[in-house]
Amino acid sequence: MLEACVLATVFVGFIGIIFKHNLLMKIISMDVMSTGVIAYYTVIASRLGFGTPILNPENDVQYADPVPQAVILTAIVIGFSIQALMLVGAMKLAHDNPTLETDRIEQDNTP
What is the pTM of this model? Predict the structure, then answer.
């Protein structure tokens, strides 16, 4: 059930990117989709019976692989920087054009 909710989040973000005409809404939809993908990997990586990867000689349990956690943390940082870059691009377009509607921007900038 949780996997279905996470995949629905990815799908909602994807639909927003396709069908929204406002550039800001497209950026927000991409963030929703990115959040869904990160949540999907988190759901897959969380399994019962595995402990945190902290070495403890007194406690003999199986440890979760720390590499997916590091990859997801890197994905969060890269996603944040891409979102910041897209917002700067949107600010530049808003400065040059009076709107953020993609149809009007294409219409005004097509020779």
Answer: 0.77
